[in-house]
Amino acid sequence: MGGRESLVDTAIRTARSGYMQRRLINALQDLKLYSDGTVRGDGGIITQFVYGGDGIDPMKRGYLDRYMEND
Fold first, then answer.
1. Per-residue pLDDT averaged across 53-62, rounded?
2. Structure pTM?
3. In the chain, where are the structural domains located?
């Protein structure tokens, strides 16, 4: 019985997190990064003045980490 309860709890948590992820993706899908470093939504409304708060692109972070280690 305990195993079944655990399985049901896991299924419910997975469903909730999946639902929250879909809602978040739908809310953020219109955001774009502009060449001046700002993040803007529909109509050019600024959401963030500096991308990510620190201006570092996570896609390039691996390169930066390796560069900093060699320094």
1. 72
2. 0.50
3. 2-70
